[in-house]
Design a protein that fits this description.
The chain is α+β, with helices and mostly antiparallel strands. It has helices spanning 2-26, 39-63, and strands spanning 71-73, 76-78, 81-83, 86-88. The chain is 51% helix and 12% strand.
């Protein structure tokens, strides 16, 4: 779960990072100079970051995860051990703890 949150956070920040690199490459001032970060630029960067994050949520929802026919088996406690849960293919039986 932390990987997914990190991925979407990085995708949101990507336009800001690209703009900061653009300012550095142009050598037109410091990245910390507030005049480089106008309200118009911040608005477009925010919209771009939100667009990337939303598209990645949609792509992850459509193409990620388990197949629709799979069955979720939750984690369980068996013979003194925790058996991790997961998705099973149709007809597949959960394995016992080793």
């Amino acid at each position: 779960m932390i990987r997914v949150i990190f991925l979407h956070g990085l995708l949101f920040l990507l336009p800001f990072i690209a703009y900061a690199l653009f300012i550095i490459i142009r050598k037109r001032g410091s990245v910390r100079d507030r005049s480089q970060w106008s309200n118009d630029a911040l608005t477009w960067l925010t919209l771009g970051g939100l667009s990337l994050a939303i598209v990645s949520f949609i792509v992850l929802g459509v193409f990620g995860g388990a197949p629709a026919e799979s069955v979720y088996v939750p984690s369980r406690y068996e013979d003194g051990r925790i058996v991790p849960g997961g998705f099973l293919e149709p007809g597949e039986e959960p394995t016992a703890a080793e």
